[in-house]
Amino acid sequence: MPRKRPIKKSRKKPTPTRTPPKSKVAARHRRHKNRRPKNRRKGVVTAALVIIGNEVLSGRTQDANLKFLAEGLNGLGIRLREARVIADDEPTIVATVNELRRRDDYVFTTGGIGPTHDDITAAAIAKAVKRRLERNVEAEARLRRHYRPEDITEARMSMADMPEGATLIDNPVSRAPGFQIENVFVLPGVPRIMQAMFDGLKARLKGGKPVFSKAVIAYIPEGVMAAPLEDVQKAYPETEIGSYPFFRLGKVGTSLVVRGVDHEKVNAAAEAIRGIIRGLGGRPEEG
Question: Parallel, antiparallel, or unpaired: how do β-strands 133-135 and 106-110 relate?
Fold first, then answer.
């Protein structure tokens, strides 16, 4: 009787793990690095403002640029998410600008680009973006055309020192230009000059969805409205509802502001707030 041959079990060799080429690994890293932060809402463009100046922190100078920039940016569909006031200190400027420029679409700085020894903003921004500080040829030419030859000084010409590769921001008032480097816009602190320069650079900014707002005023204390107002916020999570108490004509009241990119949701939330006010025996007024 012929012997049966033993059946050989086939052994599959394990599929070797393929290491992707270095170029693909680098590409993945770049995609991860350029990914928008998770906390950004789709379609929302954000900005931050850095107000630079010891004189603002000391109280000798009152800032007048924040309100103007917030309103101007909002009109372009750009939400000003944060404003910071910091000292004329290079490490502080570098750290602050680097943090905000990585988080927000645009960063604006005001102050510290004049001709005096404490005007260190340009040098600090150059360090933040890792560019060489250099004398900008076009900026220097503008300054030389503006001043009489006998009024030209090295201090005044230093206002043309900017990071390498900077794009000038026109100054229709005093001619000394500001500059843009990457997503950072460097402007003077003098409100009249800053506002004129901002009006000229708006065309460079790409906004997102416009933000609509609706204000409702009630002569009812804020604490009385707190609980029902929270219910409205939960019902309309796409909106932001702010509550601002005031004292006017001997009466305590609350200004309620609804903001959002969906016009219908903003109006609906505002109407719900009016209903709360009526239910509490008040009369809603437009803000």
Answer: unpaired
Residue pair 184/107 in contact by the 8 Å Cβ criterion: yes
Residue 232 pLDDT > 60: yes
User: What pLDDT sits at residue 44?
Assistant: 84
pLDDT at 34: 40
Each residue's pLDDT tens digit, 79-124 = 999 999 999 999 999 999 999 999 999 999 999 999 999 999 999 9
CA angle 172–185–113, rounded 5-degree value: 65
135 is a domain residue? yes
User: What's the rounded Cα separation, in Å, for the pair 143 and 148?
Assistant: 10
In a domain, 79, yes or no: yes
Q: Is the pLDDT of residue 24 over 80?
A: no
Residues forming beta bridges with residue 110, ordered by sequence position: 51, 187
The mean pLDDT value for 208-215 works out to: 87
The CA angle 37-41-47, to the nearest 5 degrees, is 70
**Residue among 69, 52, 70 at smallest CA distance from 61:** 52
With pLDDT > 90 as the criterion, what percentage of the chain qualifies?
78
Residue 50 and residue 83 in one domain = yes
Both 69 and 174 in one domain: the answer is yes
Q: Could you give the CA distance from residue 65 to residue 88 in angstroms, rounded to a whole number?
A: 17
Structural domain including 274 reads 212-286
> Could you tell me which residues come within 8 angstroms of residue 92 by beta carbon, excluding any fewer than 6 positions away?
86
The total of structural domains in the chain comes to: 2
- Residue 24 in any domain: the answer is no
Residue 76, Cβ neighbours under 10 Å: how many? 18
Q: Which amino acid is at 163?
A: P
Q: What is the pLDDT of residue 208?
A: 86
Strands 106-110 and 45-52, by their bridges, are parallel
Cα separation, 98 vs 119, whole angstroms: 19
- Do 114 and 252 fall within a single domain? no
